[in-house]
Design brief:
Layout: E1 7-10, E2 19-22, E3 25-28, E4 46-49, E5 55-59, H1 70-79, H2 85-90, E6 101-105
Antiparallel strand pairs: 1-4, 2-3, 2-5, 5-6
Length: 107
């Protein structure tokens, strides 16, 4: 994340898509590529502008529903204005795998 410009550059390499939350709505960012070690590596770099107050959520696939409907999991938390990693982890009541969640808010 370029702190002065607010431009986030990322590549996914098979991880679930990152989520950007802005103006009270969560949206999935584009991704591509297979997991590292599972074939051809596609390290396509994407750039997204993070405005003041925007939040980025990076997570592993261990969170139930994380790969299919992440915005539906996050939007109620945004509506309650209580978005943070601890609140998100509490939503993972039926973990089937390891779960890592990182939240970053641009100030």
């Amino acid at each position: 994340l370029h702190r002065n410009l607010g431009v986030l550059s990322y590549a996914s390499s098979g991880n679930p898509p990152p989520v950007v939350c802005r103006n009270g709505v969560a949206e999935l960012l584009p991704t591509s590529g297979m997991p590292v070690g599972a074939g051809m590596i596609d390290n396509t770099q994407y750039d997204v502008v993070m405005n003041t107050g925007d939040c980025l959520i990076i997570h592993t696939d261990g969170w139930p529903g994380s790969e299919t409907d992440m915005p539906a999991l996050i939007n109620p938390i945004l509506a309650a204005n209580s978005l943070n990693a601890e609140t998100l982890l509490r939503q993972a009541t039926t973990q089937s795998d390891d779960t890592t969640i990182i939240t970053i808010r641009r100030r």
